Fold this sequence. Notes:
The complex is a heterodimer. Chain A has three domains: about 15-125, Fumarate Reductase Iron-sulfur Protein, Chain B, domain 2; about 140-230 and about 375-435, FAD/NAD(P)-binding domain; about 235-370, FAD/NAD(P)-binding domain (3-Layer(bba) Sandwich). Chain A is about 35% helix and about 15% strand. Chain A has helices spanning about 25-35, 45, 55-65, 65-75, 80-85, 95, 110-125, 145-160, 175, 185-195, 215-220, 250-260, 280-290, 310-320, 410, 415-435, and strands at about 140, 160-165, 200-205, 225-230, 230-235, 250, 270-275, 295-300, 320-325, 325-335, 340-345, 360, 365, 370-375, 385, 390, 405. In chain A, the strands form five sheets. In chain A, strands 3-2-1-4-17 form a five-stranded parallel sheet, with helices on both faces. In chain A, strands 6-13-7-8-9 form a five-stranded parallel sheet. Chain A has a three-stranded antiparallel sheet with strand order 10-11-12, with no helix packed on it. Chain B is an alpha/beta fold. In chain B, α2 packs parallel to α3. Chain B contains 14 helices and 20 strands. Chain B folds into two domains: about 15-330, TIM Barrel; about 330-425, Alpha-Beta Plaits, CATH 3.30.70. In chain B, about 30% of the residues lie in helices and about 20% in strands. At the A-B interface, α1 of A face α12 of B.
Amino acid sequence: MSAPLPAPLPADRSEAVFTDYKLPLAREHAIAEANRCLFCTDAPCVNACPTRIDIPQFIRKISTDNVKGSAKTIFEANILGMSCARVCPVEVLCVGACVYNNMDSPPIQIGKLQRYATDAAFEKDWRFFEAGPDTGKSVALIGGGPASLAAAHELRRFGHRCTIFEKRGVLGGLNTTGVAPYKMRADQSLREAEWILAIGGIDVKLNTAIGEHVPLADLESKFDAVFVGAGLGADSALNIPGESLPGVVGAVQWIEHIKRSKATLDGVSRCVVVGGGNTAIDAVREAIGLGIPRVTMLYRGSEAGMSGYEHEWDAAKQQGAIGEWKALPTAFEGTGKVQRIRCQRLDDTKKPIAGSDFTVEADLVLVAIGQSKLGQMLGSLSGITIDKGRVITDARGFTGRTKWYAGGDCTNGGKEVVNAAAEGKAAAHAIHEFLGAKGARHG
Amino acid sequence: MADRDTPTIKPDLRVNCGGIKAPNPFWLASAPPANSGLQVQRAFEAGWGGAVWKTLGTPIQNVSSRFGGHTIRGVQGAGFNNIELITDRPLETNFREIAETKRLFPKHAMVVSLMVETREEWRDIIKRSIDAGADGLELNFGCPHGMCERGMGSAVGQEPKINQEITSWAVEFSTVPVLVKLTPNVSNIIPHGIAAKRGGAHGVSLINTIKSIIGVDIDRFVPEPRVGGLSTNGGYCGSAVKPIALHMVAALAREKEFGLPISGIGGITNWRDAVEFILLGSSSVQVCTEVMLKGYRIVEDMIDGLENYMQEKGFATIDQMVGKAIPAFSEWGDLDLNYETVAKIDASKCIGCQVCVAACHDGAHQCIHPPLQGGKDGSRVPIVDESECVGCNLCQIVCPVPGCITMQPVINGYQPATWNQHVHDGKSLRPKKGAH
């Protein structure tokens, strides 16, 4: 019918140069670390995990060399436990909550221990879960990222058939296209998606955009329930002169580019990332990792006021990142391509200071000021509330319109993979109740 | 300032254990670390005060492997066992090296451990040992594996009559002090110590190793240590046996009929352990396993740790410490049943792990509770229900923060009353706690 799709991930893609920023634990080290765990009661680390992994229990299992049992404990709570082990900001979640922090002892390296157990599961191809007996019900899932994968896996355990509609040619969502490659490479995310799909009964329609290739109305008529895990849209723009010059790129778009293909960086010696969030810091560290000599983060607030994690920015600084604070871009300038950013200095209230114009030289600008929200795609459906582009749901992902549930970035505005996993799973439970007691739960 | 500049008197670490003198109480036990001249000489150079030479007798043939380790929560060798026998080296070699070592280190205690069968063999080996320069002899009546099946080792130590008889031979043939090394593989150590005394021994050393299987290879279905496809019981030692050894040492030390000097052995890994053995009646201590795991240089910390302790407590000599805790080692029936403590948690130290909550709920008397939901400032400091707390200590034992949980005495208005006083004199007891 059509030419076969190109290999989803060429071997010479740019991200291939990256190696793991945090090294895995060897068995002896893992066991020693596991033996340090106090096995707390009502452990604060568990309460800090959106997916409520029973952390003391999986760690105890590592200490006894019951790695298989450990991995099962993790995946029982969070089927994306492998990627979460790599990409979770553990410093502000489980590890940040470890009681050892209260006695000036190093907290347990929970992320690394989780990686130890989940890596073993992937390496040895352990499978823990089977699909439930077929219920005859079917669920459509919009988007093939962490939220939908978590929801689909849980729905299959209940025995509901699933169909994932993914507009890209690859599954995994931002795990595949957006995660910093020194945390996880795209091929690892695809492997995870494949491992999750091995439960069977999940149909995947790649390169299929809802509203474009499949009408929204079809989903409602052909499926018993719909889960929206559509993620976020394109990079937001600054809407200033010169933004269309070659060399000015959205950060999320650029990161996807280096993760899925070989980026040309010839002649790029000064990269400026505009923004102060975690995507901006990722872009900074990736640009440095790809060998760009001078990489600057340009942010309108102060260094302390960045929304990005302090531990991530500290790491970026150690790699040589430069900060340009209280700076507001007003125009991109250059002949044929971007050459500099014209800026104004802001005061403490983020108001421009008159006469403070200055320029920063740049031959690659990555704009990381957020992503558009995709809620509008559901705007035509009555009963669904969209607020500033976010789909509004109750705590279990119900949108207010019978059959329709949602989770992940499209509802939370852009959080961590672990939030998407938790929300997808919670929605699956709500959907299961709805399918089992149709009409009763949501009227 | 003045305090710091005042020279403190260095404590005297010299010991005399049953007539065997040494510059300090730290001796190598009769075992692999005291197998050869070069080893013992290196140990003496490192600071060890004495050595009990690896048991001499008719040289044997050993198996491989010989040792097994017990790992507890990642700590390797917390317990240890062996199926190695007495010396496998020619007696002439051993005696030559003993003489050489004694010549190089004349002030160190050179004790030679012996294990033979007949009276004539004892006569002969004792003479040769003393000729080589032994300052004392140790009769190995303790080895619980291999040798006992040949009628030696613990086969002797478990029979007071045989123990006494062989001891009397040794004492008859010896011109140097004789220590009898006792086996812990008996239900009551006292008759065995007394047998040694009746045989004329100048002291005893204990404990030897405990009959044991250190573990099982769960893939091969063979106990450890594995010799091909088979294993056998071995002698258990190392840190994990210390409590058993302390009890046996103390039981003899407080026995009025006994009264001989004791060389304490069993799970001694550092100066603190050594102090405990000394306070319970040992006038020297012997170490093997910790040396096998870490090497001779652990003695440096043992010596200056002991010196610092003695200075802090005002002990000038080891003799002043020996048996100091024995008067406080009593029978259950003499304990004060009206003495009452409860656990107190120092909220400023508590890290909120609530390990004490699980321990108390699941393993004790259900009196430590998590704070109510949304406790003050989200505090996770548990609450002790003092009306239910029986003062058992478990919470303090599991708490990872030193000094966070303390057991504090309660003034309950009751006069001291022991079980014996209650039974014989009708003394009244406080109401029981946690017994509903």
